[in-house]
User: Fold this.
Amino acid sequence: MNSEAVNTKPNFYDLSLNQITDILVQLGHKKFRAEQLFKWVYEKQVVDPELMLNLSKDFRKNIPEIFDFSLPAVLKELISKDGTRKYLFDVGNGQSVETVLIPNKERNTLCVSSQVGCNMACKFCYTAKQKLKKRLSVSEIIGQYLGVKSHLPEDIQITNIVFMGMGEPLDNPDGVFGAVEILHNPLGINFSKRKITISTSGLVDRIPMITEAGVRLAVSLNGVNDKIRTELMPINKKWPLDELLNACKEHADRSKDKVTFEYILMRGLTDRLEDAVALKRITKSVPCKINIIPFNEHPESGYQRSKEGDIRAFQEKLISLGAHVLRRKTMGDDIYAACGQLNSVVSQQNSIQ
Ligand code: SAH
Assistant:
């Protein structure tokens, strides 16, 4: 009986403020206690009940019996020569995920993972070599934010959060949107929704969830027609380009926000000038910016990065056609932290050596 009670103790970081309130009220506590506790944990980042001085002594004693406050441990921290930091988090059962902090002048972007491994099977992506092992819980996503924050020097603040790490966020809506709600809650971390971006490989029927959550949408396009996109990203068979682009337009209309299209440049495959023209054409009805990403090679990549001259020519072509285009700087590739290079199996093996 007792051990069962221990096992079912909810993890505090999995719960929204409403859920915390329900639990406390059911146990006979006053409703406002939930808000007080939530503020201590997320706003003041104090988890030791003894320090929560505006709570009654009895309630303070009770807290550890009601909630479990454990978070994924940081197994490893790597710092790139360009300042990018990569963290390996233990999410139990011998599994781990990677989280990356990318510094860039006035911005520090945290790239969080939503799954261990991924089932989308995109041909170019290193994470996809690891089939889906686990959808992360809310606490495992929040834990990446809190864990990285606690490891950063005080002068580095996280200013943006992107769900562009391991996994397909829309294949884990409970974890991802639950985490967004906590990150955003003004009584806690109070992270602006305009600074949170969810990137998807194109699970079209779930894109409205991003619109409703009020966060920003990024879509990994990577191919300018169904033939090449299906070859690179099997999800395109289920949700072809015209349906994907319609969903993007719908999001832009409803949110009054621009969509970010990510487009990887692979030598001889996606980087010809005619591809740039097609890319502009297929995205013209969607208010958007285009993020071109030179392919990052990894041990099982097979594809090659475009030549520097071709990357420039591609970008200039898009600009000349009136597109809003940015080139994503390759960051952290010396520690395997760049786009498409995250694979926790390899990181763990390395950490044992
Ligand atoms: N599954 C989501 C979130 C991952 S985001 C999605 O697909 O959007 C990771 C981004 O890195 C995606 O835009 C993907 O297209 C890109 N990417 C994956 N492998 C890459 C590689 N080897 N080089 C450069 N970009 C890559």
